[in-house]
């Protein structure tokens, strides 16, 4: 295989997990999964009945070699007061940065890719500054969104039939590490955005001190659930390749996560 960011073919192995290797590109340092699962197999998994279903059991859900992977992904999320408070803080960071960077006509037309149960959409709906829609590959969490009166659709971004330059903002929180082809995905996000449109993304950060200290035991090393492991540098390279310019890239002191706001060039 060749690195998707720099085309280098040399890699060193970092960790072996469940028949997959996590490897680092010797050209640009990008960390990714080897072998890369087939796109069909991945999409079948995310579209299947066993992903995103609260408390669902993957072993009840048919075949495919991916059926054993999602134990952490689909573990029952407990929406207690603390989780909600944390989520409000996390989403609030993005919404305030987006509002600050936005120069278009209000309300901001936004699509949340990989919206899940609609946690972000629910917050946006209560904020008059956004006109938000969400999409997800999995039908189960979308049922929850519809119950909350949220505007959602099933499928990938490219399946939505959106016109080019028709949206002001794309949010992709905890999404890009899962997608089969980040360059194609960000390319499509770029296409649907107006010139100067905004991208907000959140991904695990492999070069964070907490990730380094955890070494091979870092819980985000979970191929094939997570396929790509970014750093500020490698995410910057991805943005450059897909027509974006970074406005803000930061991490938390205690949480190995990258927060990115970028603008369509
Ligand atoms: Zn590379």
Structural summary, described in words:
The chain has 265 residues and is an alpha/beta fold. The protein has one domain (78-264): Vaccinia Virus protein VP39 (Rossmann fold, 3-Layer(aba) Sandwich). Helices cover 28% and strands 26% of the residues. The chain contains seven helices and eleven strands. The strands form two sheets. The chain has a seven-stranded mixed β-sheet with strand order 6-5-4-7-8-11-10, with helices on both faces. A four-stranded antiparallel β-sheet has the order 1-2-3-9, with no helix packed on it. Strand 2 and strand 3 (31-34) form a beta hairpin. Helix 2 (81-101) crosses helix 3 (119-125). Mean pLDDT is 89; it is low at 53-65 and 67-76. Bound molecules: zinc ion (ZN). Zinc ion binds next to loops.
Keywords:
265 residues; alpha/beta; Rossmann fold; 7 helices; binds zinc ion
The N- to C-terminal Cα distance equals 30 Å
Order of helices and strands: EEEHHEHEHEEHEHEHEE
Q: Count up the domains.
A: 1
Strand order, sheet with most strands: 6-5-4-7-8-11-10
CATH architecture classification = 3-Layer(aba) Sandwich
Give the uncertain stretches in residue-range form: 53-65, 67-76
Number of strand elements: 11
- How large, in whole angstroms, is the Cα Rg? 18 Å
In the CATH hierarchy, the third-tier topology is known as Rossmann fold
Q: What is the average per-residue confidence, as pLDDT, rounded to a whole number?
A: 89
What is the CATH top level name?
A: Alpha Beta
Please state roughly what percent of the residues sit in beta strands, choosing from under 5%, 5-15%, 15-25%, 25-35%, 35-45% or over 45%: 25-35%
Secondary structure tally, helices: 7
Q: Write the CATH homologous superfamily.
A: Vaccinia Virus protein VP39
Class inferred from helices and paired strands: alpha/beta
Shape: globular
Bound molecules: zinc ion
Characterize the biggest β-sheet.
Answer: 7 strands, mixed
Helix share bin: 25-40%
